[in-house]
Amino acid sequence: MSDTIFSLLVDLAERERNTTSKRLADANAAVTTARAQLDMLERYLEDYQNRHGSRKPTTFGAETLRNFNAFILKLEAAITQQRRELAACEQGCNAVINAERAAQRKLLSFETMRDRRSEETRLLQQLNNRRLEDQAAANSAMRTRLPR
Prior knowledge:
Blueprint: H1 3-53, H2 62-145
Helix pairs in contact: 1-2
């Protein structure tokens, strides 16, 4: 393979790695946002239960107690849904982490192959130069030995 092909492969692998890095940043942001929303909902539930749950149920009317319980159930359902959302975001983030690692490995492989190819080319060029120098020296030695 020529050096241009390796350079092209390295360039494509760099683009892929950069794309997965951007996707990872987005996935991490989604996890952070989902976690913050879950924390907010849990704090809100705890605060609401502390403020309203400490009151004696006898101080509530039947309608107020029913509304309180319905609100708590909805808040708990929202927390459950947010936990699912956070788990999905974390799972997606892990998938992107794996994709980024694979892209990085591919990039390193192509860079290694390119570097090896460059080194082989350099060594071959060096060998050819040495052969030409040896041949020129041999020709020169032959000319000086031959009678004219």
